[in-house]
Amino acid sequence: MFPELIPILIIVLLYGLVIGSFLNVCIYRIPKEETIVTERSHCMSCGYQLRWFDMIPVASFVALHGKCRKCGSKISAQYPLVEALNGILYVIVFLVNGVNWTSVVYCLLVSALIVLSVIDFRTYEIPFGINLFILVLGLIHTMLDYHNWLTYVIGLLAISVPLELLLLISKGRAIGGGDVKLMAAAGLLLGWKGIILAFVIGCIVGSVIHLIRIKVSHASHVLALGPYLAVGIFAAALWGETMIAAYLNVLMG
């Protein structure tokens, strides 16, 4: 790593931590259809309105020993975990993809994937607004690489159309509508090769992890596919070209 990148990565990490704090608000309020803009953050138990020093990402949780300053109620470990994860993944994006506008788009994608993953894991639903946000990112990325616009347009349809047919045939039993929309939006961002790879990775990761969860914790056989598709999308965005090139090299001997 070049020394000149260190200040940039520190800034990226701090931005990721701060945005991660906002993601927790989205995760809690979006399923309840509450505003994520005007209402101030507060303790879920006593209603205490949090001050700025109560909301320093990760640090406030550690300083307060994971408890509300006023009533002492336990604060979910989700808060620092989401903040830290978002910050770390932002740094990984810039390390792998370099300092450019595409990395900014990928960082925003990371945040959207974190939110939809937690919500889908809990509710088995992917909010339409999150998929719409990813679609907008796809449009921006297509404009940044407009010479290859057809690749992204095909990506919009490559996985989503077959999944939509599966949705209709199974009447929603085999796949969820939110998953179909996610594949369409992410397909516009990744292109057809990337979204096919993302779907394959997501299905493999989902099958393995969910089978382990069923065996170990007797989890429900109903699968929330969103978090696993998110893993595939993230991997394809950063390492997709390398993975595809390696696969073709092996295939062609």
Secondary-structure topology with pairs:
Blueprint: H1 5-29, H2 59-63, H3 78-97, H4 101-123, H5 128-144, H6 149-158, H7 160-170, H8 177-217, H9 226-251
Structure, described:
- This protein is mainly alpha-helical.
- The protein folds into two domains: 99 residues, no CATH class; 129 residues, no CATH class.
- 70% of the residues lie in helices and 0% in strands.
- It contains nine helices and no strands.
- The longest helix has 41 residues.
- The radius of gyration is 19 Å and the shape is globular.
- 35% of the residues are buried.
- The model has no long low-confidence stretch (mean pLDDT 91).
Instruction: Provide the gyration radius in Å.
Output: 19 Å
Biggest sheet features: none
Q: Mean of the pLDDT scores?
A: 91
Helix content percent band: over 70%
Number of strands: 0
Strand content: under 5%
Number of helices: 9
Q: List SSEs in N-to-C order.
A: HHHHHHHHH
Shape estimate: globular
The unreliable regions are none
